[in-house]
Amino acid sequence: MLEFDRVVLERGGQRVLDGVELRIAPGERVGLVGPSGTGKSSLLKLAAGLLAPASGRVGNRFARTCMAFQEPRLLPWRSVLDNLCIPLHAAGHDKAGARRLASQWLQRMGLAERADAWPRQLSGGMAQRVALARAFATAPDLLLLDEPFAALDPALRRELGALCDAELARTGAALLCVSHHPRELAERVDRCLRLEHGRLLPCALPCPAVPDAEAAVIPLFPQPAAPRQASTP
Ligand SMILES: Nc1ncnc2c1ncn2[C@@H]1O[C@H](COP(=O)(O)OP(=O)(O)OP(=O)(O)O)[C@@H](O)[C@H]1O
């Protein structure tokens, strides 16, 4: 279980989260939307233990929490294979076991031939695939996804999205996923939350039949209510 109790977070002198309440149970898949700069990434970093709240409590009783960021964040001085092996060593795998598992994941991502490459030799999409492989390889029971498909072309987005869904179905891991694509999110999560003015609110998932452009506009950037027209007889 992941629990936020009245969590307040301040960054750069601003109050970003203002009494956030959140519960995520094992196996639950939750989407997180909201305008740019409202604190979605910060909320994920709190869940991952990378930030600490100013007040309130973040309790994370999942055994293995993994986060994939908007950008790949690979170690530039280590090979692609080593970038996968390092967290596997930290998770208790021996050297041979870590290399075997890392190689299997690179194969699954279509990157087996890039195992000895340096991260700078990869395209942006390849680097993001390595970052996702790194997140999945440690078999997380809570996966935190911060728009990891944002920089990818649509075909690769779909391919990696499908791989992600298959892996979640296989492992039963819980998910907290930030996305600016509500329709894709609707296909991936059980429920959705919207971060606004420092608080989390339930948010309706868009109907899959709504075209992408409309679905993207409606839940993410709601317009203020139009002034009421005087009724005519
Ligand atoms: N390292 C930092 N130091 C100071 N302030 C920061 C830092 N990182 C983020 N902030 C501020 O915290 C607020 C929330 O940022 P955050 O990145 O969590 O928002 P977000 O909703 O994820 O945005 P986006 O959708 O654009 O990624 C913003 O006002 C941002 O300027």
From TrEMBL:
Annotated keywords: ATP-binding, Nucleotide-binding, Transport
Record SMART domains: AAA (SM00382)
GO molecular function: ATP binding; ATP hydrolysis activity
Pfam annotation, one family: ABC_tran
UniProt xrefs under InterPro entries: AAA+_ATPase, ABC_transporter-like_ATP-bd, ABC_transporter-like_CS, ABC_transporter_ATP-bind, P-loop_NTPase
ABC transporter domain sequence ranges: 2-222
UniProt-listed PROSITE patterns: ABC_TRANSPORTER_1, ABC_TRANSPORTER_2
Gene3D superfamilies to which the protein is assigned, alphabetical: P-loop containing nucleotide triphosphate hydrolases
Annotated family: Belongs to the ABC transporter superfamily.
PANTHER family: ALIPHATIC SULFONATES IMPORT ATP-BINDING PROTEIN SSUB, TAURINE IMPORT ATP-BINDING PROTEIN-RELATED
Name of the protein this chain belongs to: Nitrate ABC transporter ATP-binding protein
